[in-house]
Amino acid sequence: MIYGRSLFHIVASLIILHLSGTTKQGTEKQSTSETKSVQCGSWTKHADGGVFTSPNYPSKYPPDRECIYIIEAAPRQCIELYFDEKYSIEPSWECKFDHIEVRDGPFGFSPIIGRFCGQQNPPVIKSSGRFLWIKFFADGELESMGFSARYNFTPDPDFKDLGVLKPLPVCEFEMGGPEGIVESIQIMKEGKASASEAVDCKWYIRAPPRSKIYLRFLDYEMQNSNECKRNFVAVYDGSSSVEDLKAKFCSTVANDVMLRTGLGVIRMWADEGSRNSRFQMLFTSFQEPPCEGNTFFCHSNMCINNTLVCNGLQNCVYPWDENHCKDQTAS
């Protein structure tokens, strides 16, 4: 039985990553920028759920494979995950070899729900929030049939008294250059939403060519601290897709983030009762050494634009760019 077919459609995403695996002998994974991904099974998506499988299912899955599946539900929704009875994964003690691992959240370090292998399909799995992280791992020996899994969305019981979430306003910003300030107050200043509306806003930061991005929080406070379902600030590295989610903050502390690409996406989710949540963030575009003539070396593997030196803001990880500025002014 499939649950969660409500009066409104749910927008969700299932992202599958494809990486080479490891063997029982401990062979290290190897990958290069030229390596192309190998299809990690079939998958289909619908507004109210979807289906994904291990590679070659129902035939034997190939050796040396690691697949990551990330499911994201819409606000105020949870995920239910079902595994088909036609299921077989190489058995082992504590599922140390071939296995499926399920975590309650969007990351590989989210709380673990369970690790599964053998001939008995896993029980029904329910997320506590909007995300599930699923890994299928196969080593170099003893392949089996694998699995087929289906998922659907159900209302989050924590919000059963609030009813259906109203349609969210379109809320996106484009930014770029050597530096800039990203702040939640832009939502009201630019008329993206009223003070009483829930918001799911995204800021797209595009660094100059051959540059990466360093993000430093200047101000941060969540109105409903530690309630990620109600408010959070998230950082994506390379796109706004869930597989590029780098960090998510909803507690009392937000850490600086160093991106590996020149495209950063900042996302703020705040429901109707969390609109006093706020943040302010400084982004700095940088290149890796050797530094060119029009750049300043930060002593933290960063070369920033010379115009950012002694500008009153700390653009380096450590304040090298603001040291001795009074001495230079006096001279």
Automatic annotation (TrEMBL):
The keyword Cell membrane does not apply. One of its GO terms (molecular function) is ionotropic glutamate receptor binding. Its main location: membrane. InterPro entries: CUB_dom, LDL_receptor-like_sf, LDLR_class-A_CS, LDrepeatLR_classA_rpt, Sperma_CUB_dom_sf. GO terms for cellular component: glutamatergic synapse; membrane; postsynaptic density. Pfam families: CUB, Ldl_recept_a. This is Neuropilin and tolloid-like protein 1 isoform X2. It comes from Delphinapterus leucas (Beluga whale). The gene is NETO1.
